[in-house]
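Hi team,

Filling in the usual template for the complex we talked about on Friday. All components are listed, including any nucleic acid strands or ligand strings, so the model treats them as one assembly.

SUBMITTER: L.P.
PURPOSE: interface mapping
COMPONENTS: three
RESIDUES: 1381
SEQUENCES:
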Amino acid sequence: MILNQFLLLAAFLFCVGVYGVIVRKNAVLVLMSIELMINSVNMNFVAFAFYNDNLAGQVFALFAIAVAAAEVGVGLAIVLLIYRNRRSVDLADLSEMKG
Amino acid sequence: MNLNDWALSLITFLPLVVAALVIAVPKADEDLQKLIALVGSLIPLGLVVWVLANFDYDRSGELQFSVNRGWIDLINSRFHIGIEGIGLPMLVLSCLIIPLCIVYSWNHFPDPHNPKAFLALMLLLETGMNGTFISQDLILFFVFFELVLLPMYFMIGVWGGPNRQYASLKFFLYTMFGSAFMLLGFLALYFKAGRTFDIAQLMTNVETAGISTNTQRLIFAGLFLGFAIKVPMFPFHTWLPDAHTEAPTQGSVILAAVLLKLGTYGFIKIAIPILPEGARFWAPVIGVLAAIGILYGALGCLAQTDFKRLIAFSSVAHMGYVMLGISTLTTYGINAAVFGMVAHGFITGMLFFCAGSLKERFHTLEINRMGGLLKTMPKLGWVLGFASMASLGLPGLAGFWGEFPAILSAYKPHPSLNESLFRVFMVVAAVGTVFAAGYLLWLYQRTAFGEPKAEWAGHEFHDVSTEEWIAWAPMLIAIVVLGIFPALLFGITDGAVTNLVDHVTKVLGS
Amino acid sequence: MISVLSASEAAPVLSDGFFLGYTWLLPLASVIAFAFILFFAKKIDKRNAAAYISIAFIGAQFLFASAAVVQWQVRDKVVVVAHEAEGAEGEGEVSSDGEANAEPAEEAALGLGTSARFAVPTAEAEGEAKLRPAVEKSVTWYRNGPIDVEVGTHVDGFTVAMLFVVAFISLCVHVFSREYLRDDSRITHYFASLALFTGAMFWMVQSATTLGLLFGWEVMGLCSFLLIGHWWEDTTNTNAALKAFFTTRTGDIGLLIGIVITFFAAGETFDMAKINEAALTGKMSQWICFVAATCLFAGVVGKSAQFPLHTWLPDAMAGPTPASSLIHAATMVVAGVYLVARLYGVFWMGFSIEVGGMNLGAWVGSITLVMAAALAFVQTDIKKVLAYSTVSQLGYMIMGLAVGGWAGAIFHLFTHAFFKALLFQASGSISHSGSHHSFEMERMGGLRKHMPITFITFTAGYLALCGLPPFAGFWSKDEILTAASANDFKFAFYAGSLGAFMTACYMTRAYTKTFFGENRLHLFHDDHEAHAVAVDVHDSHDTHAVAAHDDHGSHDGPHESNWWITGPLAVLAVMSTIVGLLQWPGWLGLPAYNFEHFIEGNVFEETVLKAFGAPKFDFAIAIPSTLLGIAGMIVGVVYYKVFNHDAGLVKRGGIFGLIHKVLKNKYYLDHLWTGVVVGSIKGPIAKGAYWFNQKGLDGVVNTAGSTAVGAARFVYKYIDQGVVDGAANGLGSTAHGFGNALRRAQNGKVQNYAAVFIGAVGLAALALVLFV
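RESULT (copied from the run log):
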């Protein structure tokens, strides 16, 4: 089944992304991991769209890519600012949201 | 613009506009405020005269000058107005009383003065009252019915006597309490009888929809509570003496002349035609309460030492006659009731005017401190005597036609009612006429006859002033004219009342 | 054939019935006079303008009424002629108005069977007497459903006779008042009330409907109230006015109910002719008739001062004397009698008069006439004596009607009006000129020398009242007694005879005390207080009056009044003497029973004539009753004049003392009514009701209000502040604890959050897979 393989790949990529988000200390790498997660979802969209013969999924995937691009743009800008202020992008140092 | 369509709306909403205008006038410019208010209240009077002139008296049972537009589509409530033989006299009464009150107020604004607000409230009241009498839709009716409360609340609460806050709050809450049940009744009708608030449609719907008798009775009970408190009927009358005693003169006059009629009008216009079965069931109860009210109000009068309170209790007795007439469900009775409403409006309004003028001159309403009025202020004394005589139902004056036909009707109530029971009411009502003579003439003896009390020696009293004459003359004339030519009023009401009774008979008969 | 001739000549002018058809102009004129006097008389710059205007009006009305009398008399002939002509067109000529057109045929049909019964040997209609049709006019007053409520006039002989007597007495009283109330500061009010009263009485006697009658009835009550209370500064007067109004109004409860019952029982009509017809034809059952008659009779008892509601009439003497003479002697108080006579069909059936024995009306009338006569013995005020005499005579009339003496009772009403008005006005004359505005007989005495005209006229009235032939009272009283005897009302007959004796006796007492012996006025000369208390107090503002007062008060002894007063007295005296001859029994070939013939109508024919036949003069009754009258006078003279025993016997105590005490206290009826009934209603009952109102009903409301407020307080204090707010507060602290616990999780490390988040999603996903 062709769908299964796409889904498995997507699941693997998602898990990689999750791992990266949780474990990596570098904010840039976390962002990249997020991209991985988003793209795994995109892959699911496309796969289901193909499987169901429905273009909506493809359209959503395009939207998601656009949004992800914007998100990365904003995210990198924030990271850049954090780096400027702190000379570090280590997430372990950023605990100002502590309750 | 077709005046036929617009007349009633103008009569109703023009006072509201004028009220806004009065408010817009600078506070200092009192003359302008009074002038605007007077003119603004005279225009509806002129319009109502036009309506009277163009009213088709042969079809007084049918709605005339009616307008039926969409209003709140969601609940199928429509802006349906119109006038027929029962509402018209009340509309005329209301449109006449307000200008007279404004004229009377001219130099007699009660403390704390502020004519601007006072006039605006009076005009607002007129909107509410007129609107109630032309509404053909229950929600519309309810809105106007409740609209009346607020200005009166402020009138009593701001311009009232020493105990005004208690009285105004009691008035407001008590009537609101009744209104809540009335609204419940309206909603029950809406849901049970074809999702409409239109009175005419409800009449046919209830007749055909086969609402169970018990439900009809329950709904009637709700409406009964709302209207009976407004009338007020014994034993729901206790807000009345307080409200009257504390209210400023104009407030008392409007309250007695028009506001009380909203309740009785509701019975005739809404409760009975829509729910004849409920009316049949509750008629004996209404009759009993009316009969008790007649005697009880009179006894209450006999115990009073305060002029205004006495007249307030006399209202309870007089409204008892009106309600007795209504409860018989006959043409005699309901015609008498409508006549009684108008007559009571003029007569008791007149008595309250007298009370106000006495209060202004004596600064008290203690009956025992007055006396010798005929000596100090003969004109006022004779006006008071005239009003008293009218109030006790002397033939030849308007009061008689509200009283005697009501007694007459109780002899032979609607065939579906218990005849012997109503004959007892008839006797009680007839006995009530003696009591009426009793309390009014004792009042008159104590205030007008005899020598002036020593405490007023050397005190200079001014007799009836010009603006008082202007305000009173139409009422005095109306009392005599209606007393001698009852057809003037019966001619308007009879068609509508006959229709109503025919409808009731048809429903109860089938 | 004379009749034919006169009729054909008179017909074009008189038979069109102008004065009969337009009688409603009489009350209208009175109302105009009333309004005019009230609003304009004071503006006219002439003293006593009100009096002159008033006299002018009543004079014109008197002429009108006289013309109506003539026209009715002529109508007799015209109708007979018309019947002889046997044509509908003839009838059309007779009655101009449409209503009356139908009547003659109908009544002719009715009358055929009965007309033979009263074949009165009159010159005009030899055995062919027909009832003259009443002149009726009506308009719709208002409509109620299918019923037209009508208002109209019904003018027949009875009405015309009443119109005449009212106009006549009223004219006399107006003239008399011009002098008697000269300089009274409220003269306009007085004459306005008098005019309104006259109008109301005119209206009442011509009204075709019970409703119209009620109008006149009540407006007369109002005028009576105003006139009794004319000098309203004094509480005694206003109390009397109120008492009169309440008492009659109490009776009116019955009247109202009676009108209502007859209205429905006769098929929804107020028309009295129809009501009578319904009663006599059996459309109204006997029981309904009885109830209706009893109720109506209550109104009669109130208005005509019958036992036990007679107590207001003596008190009503507080009013000006001419007003008393018009209202409380001659006219208004006979309204009740008029009502019974007018609705005689109802009473006839209701009281079963035909049966004889006794009935409610006969009882009440008999009791009234005796007990009021007894009260007259102990009065010291001449007006009170006359007042009780009026009550007694009214009892005669009621009794007369109730025993089937319809014509006799009405005739007594007619004659009594003249001689009682005369007696009252004579007493007014005495008070005006002979006793310093007092009516106390103690201040009089020997006045026959000082006031000869008053004396002579009073004597005429006195003899008429005592029922000596040929004075007016003899004929009418005798006719009532004859009816009572012939129609088998034994008790009523004995009561009436006793009453005749007592009347003669107490009138003799008053007569001798007033006109004979020594004048006692000087004994009271310095009694200025009494002067002020005396009834006819002039208004103190009127300095002229006070001056004039003191003038003849202090310096003049008793003297004769001027012609404004003696004129009416003389006229009335003549009438009192001759008016009884109207019922001349036909001796010497003169016309017989004219009065009866004049007033007879449908009702009379259908009831009395049918059952008893026309009453006839009966020597067997007349001679004993005359002797009784003479005996009464003799006893009176002997007891009061010769032995001067006014209080002598009764001072001895014992049974006479007791009787005297009871009489002095008016049988304690005043105590019963004023003290017990009214007092308790006005006092404890009203106060109790009000207490109930304030504590009971309003208590409920206030309790409801305060309970609501209390409940609100409770809710606020305990539930809102305690439970709800407590809960909220508790929630807060709990949340605080939780937060504290949870804040450790909030370490600000983004990756922790992400881990928790993803873990949670994972768990959720697991749950989804496992459970759904």
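MY TAKE: Chain A has a mean pLDDT of 87. The interface with chain C takes residues 18, 21-23, 30, 91-92, 94-99 of chain A (CB under 8 Å).

Thanks, L.
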